Input
Amino acid sequence: MSQRIVIDSLAFGREAGSLHGDLNIAGLTRVLDLLADSAGYLTYRVDGRVSPSNRSQLQLQVDGVLSLCCQRCLEGVEYPLAVRSLLEFVDNEGELTQEEIEDDSRDFLAAQKELDVVALIEDEIILALPAAPRHESCALPKAGQGSAKVSPFSVLTGLKGKA
Ligand SMILES: [Zn+2]
Output
């Protein structure tokens, strides 16, 4: 199943384009490396508009649940994803003022005739994920866990047998 969605970044903003749909998580190849489980879908929405400074912008939303790999026990940790990004397209980065570069309300990208929306969504997901996901409480996996711990009752049974 192809998940390629290509737009002209400038035209999409000028024409106030809008796209939405589902993405198969298993098809997001760069995100997959970070997941414990690739089942399910994410929903996305992309809206184009023009900024007050007359640049093309994309408002990007991605929602869904990802199963990340817990850094402690290596099992899946459910992570509710809610990406909200505002991207603004510029002809070249040299045209940005220092004030704009320091402005965290939006990110700047080079304008592209053929912008790969799925690749952009993957970038934004990767940026939004925690660096070291963990369960709130879980144990490190240990070899032979359970059998190593001797229950007081099994000790009693052992004594009974000897009596
Ligand atoms: Zn864990």
